[in-house]
Amino acid sequence: MKRNILSLIFGLLVYQSLPAQPALPDNGPLYTDTVVPRIDITINPDTLDWIYKNPANDLEFHAKFVFNNGTVCDTIDPVGFRLRGNTSRYSKKKSFKVSFNTFTPGGKYYGVEKLNLNGEHNDPSVMRSKVMWDILRKWGIPAPRANHVELFINGRYYGLYINVEHIDEEFVFSRFGNKNGNLYKCLYPADLNYLGSDPDDYKLLSGDRRVYELTTNKEEDNYSDLAALTDVLENSPDNKLACELEELFNTYDYLKIIAADIFCGNWDGYIYNKNNYYLYHNTATGKMEYIPYDVDNTFGIDWFGVDWAALNIYAWHPGGTEKRPLYSRLINNPELRKQFTYYANQLITTTIDIDSLMLSIEDRKNMIAPFIAEDPFYPLDYGYDYNDFLLSCTKAIGAHVKWGLYPFFHARSMSMSQQIESGAMVPVIKYIRHRRDEDQKVMISACVETDIMPVSVILLYSINDGDIQQADMPYDGHGSYSATLGSVSGETKVSYQVMVTDGLGRMKLMPCAMAVAKPVSGYTPLLFINEFMADNSVTVSDEYGNYSDWIEIYNGDTGNIYLGDLYMTDNLASPDKWQLPGINLQPGGFALFWADGNPTLGDRHAEFKLDKEGEAIGLFTADLLLVDTLTFGMQSEDISYGRRSDGAAENRFFVYPNPVTGTMVKLSHRINCRVFNSSGLQIFAGKEVDEIDIRSYPPGLYIIVSDNGWSAKFIVY
Questions:
Q1: What is the Cα–Cα distance from 408 to 414, expressed in whole angstroms?
Q2: CA–CA distance from 480 to each of 235, 307, 457, 470 (Å)?
Q3: pLDDT at residue 491 above 80?
Q4: How far apart are CA 695 and CA 677, in angstroms?
Q5: HEC states along 210-233?
Q6: Shortest CA distance to 178 belongs to which of 330, 371, 23?
Q7: Which residue among 216, 269, 639, 663 has the highest number of C-beta atoms inside a 10 angstrom radius?
Q8: Which whole number is the average pLDDT over 220-233?
Q9: Cα–Cα dist 276/186, whole Å
Q10: Where are the strands (E) in 287-406, listed by range?
Q11: d(CA 208, CA 86)
Q12: Helix (H, G, I), strand (E, B) or coil at 352
C-alpha cells in the first residue's frame, strides 16, 4: 500500500497569463528512433482470427503487450487490441491500435493511453509519414512523435510498423498545458464551410460518424467554438480577417503547416481532400489549434493523376465548387499571403537542408532494411520486394508511387522556389503573453518574425487608461522580445500592444485590440494549494467514510484569512466554479476540502472532482484574480503531491509509524511543532518533542508543522 508524500515546488504569482507557445516533448523510451524496438502482442488465436474476419469492427479485446527497446523491457497485461484505420482495414498488412486504458482505467505507458501501429502498406519505403512528422516537429509544430518498431503477434513476425503517437487529451495536455478544451477529429468531408449560426448544424454525419467528431467534453457536446470559427472564415471582410481570425485561431502556426503540407505533398489532409486533421480549442489562449493527422499519402504517393511536386502553392486546393475557406481565405488575403510566402521560403531555404535530410534517411533506411527483408506482409498488397525498398528513395516504383523520395524533395523544392512571389511581408507577432508578479512588476513578451532586418520592437502601454507610453522590448536571447514594467501596484490596470517595425518601415501592431493585465483590486491573500490527492482509495476518508479526492489549502500569511470570499476550480477557464465555505483560517493553518463533486454532503465538499489523469487546480479571489494554481499530470493511487516548504534540508523530519493505530506517533528527531486536524484547527503545540500522544485523536488525517516550516502528514486509523 503506497502512502508516499512526494514534494513539488510551485511558484506563487498574483496573476499569470498561460503560455501560448506549444511544447514538444522528447521521444523518450517509447518513441526512441535510433533503434527499432520490438513490440509483442499475445492474444487468443480465435480472437485474432475473428478480428481479421470482421475488419470494420472496433471492439477491443484483451491482449498482453511487451515492449523492448534494448534498454527498457516492460510487460503490460491486459491491454485493448483492435484494428485501426480506414481503407487499411481491408489491406493484407493491417494497422492496429493498442489501448492501455481500456481494461485498466487511467492506464498509460510513458504518458500515452494508446499506440497507433501503422502498417504503411501503400509506401514501399515505409518512411514517408515518419519523414513528415520529423519535419513538422523540427519546425515547432505540435505533431505526433513516431518511430519504427517490429511487431510480433503470438510469436509470429508481422513486419515493420510505424508507431505514431495517438492524438487525444493527453496529447494536447503535453503540448498546450491544458486538456479541458474541445478536441475535434475531422475526417472527410470536413471542409470547414459555414453551415449557419446554430452550433448543432456542425454535428453532421458521414455514414455512422460525425464529420467533426468531438472526442472530449462529450457530455456538453457544445460546438459553438467550431461555429464561430467557420463564421469568421465566411463573413469577415479581407481587411478584418487577420484580426478576427487571430482572436479564434492560431493563424501563424497554421500558415507554417500549409507550407509543410505543400512541400511534403500531403494531399490527404484538409486543403485538398478535406480529411485527416484535428482541431483543439486551447483554453490557455482561447484559440483553435490545427493538428495534422495521418500523413502517409505524401512525397509523391498519388491516386488522382496530380503531380504533387509541381502543383501551384497558391492554388493547392481542388478549386471549382470545392471550397476550403481555411486555406483559400488565408492564401487570398494580401497580408496573410505574404506571411505564408515567407514561411514557404523559410522552409525550403533554412529549415530543410535536403542533403542533410537525405543523409538521415539513408541512415534510417540502413537501420530498418533487415526488418523489411524479413517482413512477410510487405509484399502482399502491391507485390513489393526487398529491391523495391532499396530503390524507393531514388526511383518511382510505379502505380501510385510516382516519385522516389529524393527526386521528390528536389523537384518540390525547385518548384516552390520558382513559384514563390516577391515582396516583403508585414512582421508576424505571436505568442504574446504577460504576467504580474508579487514584486509590483508586469512582464510582457512576444515572438517576432520578419524577413527584413533590423527590427524594432516597442511596447505601447497605458496605466489606468491614461496616456499611451512606450518601452523598448529587447531580444531576450530565448526566442522572444520582452519588457518589464516596474513599480506597478496590484491595483493598477495595464493595457498594452506590441508594435514591430522592420527594416523597410513596415509596421505591425498586435493584438489588434489592447490586451489588459487586470488589476488586483484589494488584498490578495498569501494562500497556497499545499497538497492534493487525485486517486484516494484507502488513505483517508471523509466524515461519511467515503474515500474521495482532496485538496489542502495552507495559510502562509501573518493573519487570519476568510475563505468565504474565494473560489476554487479544476478548470482555469471557469475560475468561479466553487465558492469556498465561510471559515477563518489562522496563520500557518491548513484546511482540507473534498473534491468529490457532491456539495450536498457539506460545505467542505466541492462541486468538482479531480482527474487522476491530470489537470489544473486554481484558487481565485472574488474578483476572479489568481491567488495560486498548479498543474499536474497522471497520478498514482494513494499518493499525494504537495508543496515543499522553505527551510534547510537538514532540519526536515519524518513521522512513524504511519498510519498509526497505537497510542503514540514518533518523530525522527526533536522539534518545535504544532499539530492541525483536517479542518485546519490546531490541536497541539510543543517544544523539543519527539513523540505525540494521539489517544484522543479520532481517525483521520493530521498535519505536523515545525517552526522552520517543514510539514509532515500522518493518518490515525
A1: 10
A2: 33, 39, 10, 18
A3: no
A4: 14
A5: ECEEECCCCCCCCCHHHHHHHHHH
A6: 23
A7: 269
A8: 96
A9: 6
A10: 287-292
A11: 13
A12: coil
Q: H-type helices in 420-524, by residue range?
A: none
Identify the CA nearest to 119 among candidates 373, 377, 303: 377
Coarse DSSP helix, strand, coil percentages of the chain, rounded to the nearest 5 percent:
20, 35, 45
Cβ burial, residue 34 (10 Å; 0-12/13-18/19+): exposed
d(C-alpha 89, C-alpha 56), whole Å: 7
pTM of the predicted model, to two decimals? 0.74
Residue count (the chain): 717
Q: How far is CA 86 from CA 69, 90, 187, 447, in A?
A: 29, 8, 11, 39
What pLDDT does residue 524 have? 60
Closest CA to 184 of 141, 216, 206: 216
Instruction: Give yes or no for residue 623 having a pLDDT over 80.
Output: no
Rounded CA separation 66/273 (Å): 37
Q: What is the mean pLDDT of residues 231-250?
A: 96
**DSSP string for 236-277:** --HHHHHHHHHHHB-HHHHHHHHHHHHHHT-TTSHHHHS-SE
One-letter amino acid for residue 232 of the chain: V
What CA–CA distance (Å, rounded) separates 372 from 359?
19
Q: d(Cα 488, Cα 471) in Å, to the nearest integer?
A: 14
Residue type, 267: W
Asked if 561 contacts 585 with a C-beta cutoff of 8 angstroms, the reply is: yes
- Angle at the Cα of 507 from the Cα atoms of 505 and 511, rounded to 5 degrees: 165
Q: In a 10 Å sphere around its CB, with 0-12 CB exposed, 13-18 middle and 19+ buried, how is residue 505 labelled?
A: exposed
Gyration radius (Cα) of the chain, Å = 29
Q: Contact 190/274 with Cβ under 8 angstroms? A: yes
